[in-house]
Each structure stands twice: as structure tokens, then as C-alpha cells.
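Q: Given only this backbone (315 positions), what sequence would you predict?
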């Protein structure tokens, strides 16, 4: 029988807020309702933006909310280490495997050159036109500037079925282009690191925010090229404020620490999110563990979820 394994994969770049808890709660329920194992992995590859204090705060907030894990940086586990910062050798090994297959090339494009390329459909990212792939490396290599490394994306479509978003199909070479797998500062890119980690940690279920849906075809391509089995993906709707903006770590008022300081209880936060997720019919205080039995992904709303400024239920 398949052992279900899911994960929380927070980046410790700020205090966790309601939006992080929304995805964490749903990922936790997906795993716990299937009797599976939960992994906590800290995605702290970007040392400039990550702060150790946020890791401790995040773990304290999650425990306070009743969201636990079986493996993680604090408790260890079979697939340790659980911080990306300590897993760089594994990313490098995967990179070397792709390089040996002739799928990686250095890119010396400047920011200005990249900015001139076509924007990615509906997003901030740009389609990389493959300038350095055609340059064939050597000739115009600028002295002293280290290159980024890009994956030479094969032509064709990548498709998969998302457990919430349904059938997804993307032509990566046309819609994204050859993407970066190691940045020019030597840091392995999220797309590569997340695949290496989810594969090495034997993750079978990835549940995360809809903002990462467009990354999944790239990740599936990497699974395919590395000859690894991919998990089943679920991308859940994002929480937005009344103006339609995504909740972000900049909205300090919605950090769990700030809500807690106002005297709001863990059960109020979980109950509010469960009600927004369609898991309970009325807004009421509830423990995360009380939601396990009735959990089903098809109860989730299909569009974005609006968080009112007058938060939480009046009892
Ligand atoms: N570390 C990412 C974030 O905090 C999540 C990555 C993932 O779930 O794949 O947004």
C-alpha cells in the first residue's frame, strides 16, 4: 500500500501569516486524513532573505495552531537534513546529472538583456528567448562574471492532472523558455531544489498555493529528465484581501504572532479558515484535529478566497 507523505515547505523570510496557515492547514489535512506522514522542510536557500528567528517562530506558531509534523529540522527523521541550506550537495549532484546529459548551459545575459525579452503570459516572469543557448558558450563569455545555468528545455507539452485545478498543460519551451536551475550567485534555483527534495524525501502529495501552479510543469519536466517519480499535485486557491491583493508577509496585521497577541485563539483561526474552505458550514471555533474526518478536497471553493477586514467570527 502506498504510504502518503506530504510536506510543509515554508521559506523563513517573514513571520507566517494567515495565507501560509491556509495552505499548511490544507496540506496537513490532506495527509492526516489519509493516515500519512507530514514533513517540515525549511526552504532557506536564499540566505539574504532567510532569518533563523523566523524558523523558530514559524515552528512555534504551527504547533500552537495544532499542525504537527513527523519529520523536520527539530525532530530529525530518515531523510534529514530538513533545511535546504544543508542539502546543497544533493542539488549539485542533480545538476551534474543534467549536465552530463547535455541539458545545461551557462547564461551570461545581463538583467537589461533579459528585460528585453517577451513577458510570460499574465505574469511577471519573462520568456527566455534562448540567447545563450545559441551563443554556444565560449565566444562572448564576459570576463569575471559568473554565469547562471539554464536547462535546455526540450520542445513539447507537459501535462498533468491537479487534484484541485484539474487538467493542466503547458508548453514550457514556448511559455517559459529555458529556465535557470542555478543562479549566477551559485545558489541552486527553487525549481531544482524543490524537485530534488520532494523526490529524496519520498513525498507523494504536494499541496500548495495556486501561485505555484505555473511552476509545476517545470518541476515535472525535471522529474522526467532525472528519471524520478513525481508526486501528485494540488494547488489551492489563494487568500486575498478585499481589494483582491494576495496576502503577503508584509501585511504584519495578519501574521499569526500579531493575531495571537490580540488574544485570538488558535481554534478561532482554524475555524475561520475551515469555514472559508467549505469544511464547516458556519464560522465557529474548531481544532485542526477535528477537521480530519470530514476533510475532502472537493469541498474547497474554486476561486480566490476573500478575507474580510473584520476578521474572524463573532461568537
Ligand atoms: N517555499 C515555498 C514558499 O514558501 C513553497 C514551495 C512549495 O511548496 O513548493 O512559498
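A: Predicted residues:
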Amino acid at each position: 500500500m502506498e504510504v502518503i507523505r506530504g510536506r510543509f515547505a515554508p521559506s523563513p523570510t517573514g513571520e507566517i501569516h494567515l495565507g501560509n496557515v491556509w495552505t499548511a492547514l490544507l496540506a496537513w489535512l490532506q495527509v492526516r486524513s489519509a493516515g500519512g506522514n507530514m514533513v517540515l522542510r525549511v526552504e532557506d536557500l536564499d540566505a539574504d532573505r532567510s532569518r533563523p528567528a523566523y524558523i523558530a517562530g514559524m515552528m512555534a506558531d504551527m504547533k500552537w495552531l495544532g499542525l504537527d509534523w513527523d519529520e523536520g529540522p527539530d525532530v530529525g527523521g530518515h531523510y534529514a537534513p530538513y533545511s535546504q541550506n544543508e542539502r546543497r550537495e544533493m542539488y549539485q549532484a542533480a545538476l551534474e546529472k543534467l549536465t552530463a546529459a547535455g541539458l545545461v548551459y551557462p547564461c551570461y545575459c545581463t538583467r537589461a538583456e533579459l528585460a528585453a525579452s517577451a513577458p510570460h503570459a499574465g505574469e511577471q516572469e519573462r520568456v527566455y528567448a534562448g540567447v545563450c543557448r545559441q551563443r554556444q558558450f565560449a565566444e562572448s563569455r564576459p570576463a569575471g562574471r559568473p554565469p547562471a545555468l539554464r536547462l535546455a528545455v526540450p520542445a513539447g507539452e507537459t501535462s498533468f492532472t491537479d487534484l484541485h485545478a484539474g487538467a493542466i498543460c503547458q508548453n514550457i519551451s514556448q511559455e517559459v523558455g529555458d529556465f535557470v536551475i542555478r543562479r549566477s550567485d551559485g545558489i541552486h534555483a527553487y525549481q531544482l531544489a524543490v524537485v530534488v527534495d520532494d523526490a529524496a524525501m519520498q513525498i507523494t502529495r504536494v499541496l500548495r498555493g495556486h501561485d505555484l501552479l505555473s511552476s509545476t510543469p517545470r518541476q515535472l519536466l525535471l522529474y522526467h529528465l532525472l528519471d524520478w517519480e513525481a508526486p501528485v499535485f494540488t494547488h489551492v486557491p489563494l487568500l486575498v484581501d478585499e481589494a483582491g491583493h494576495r496576502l503577503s508577509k508584509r501585511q504584519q496585521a495578519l501574521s499569526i504572532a500579531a493575531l495571537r497577541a490580540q488574544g485570538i485563539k488558535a481554534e478561532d483561526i482554524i475555524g475561520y479558515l475551515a469555514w472559508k474552505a467549505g469544511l464547516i458550514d458556519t464560522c465557529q471555533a474548531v481544532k485542526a484535529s477535528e477537521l480530519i474526518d470530514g476533510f475532502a478536497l472537493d469541498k474547497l471553493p474554486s476561486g480566490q478566497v476573500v478575507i474580510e477586514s473584520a476578521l474572524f467570527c463573532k461568537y
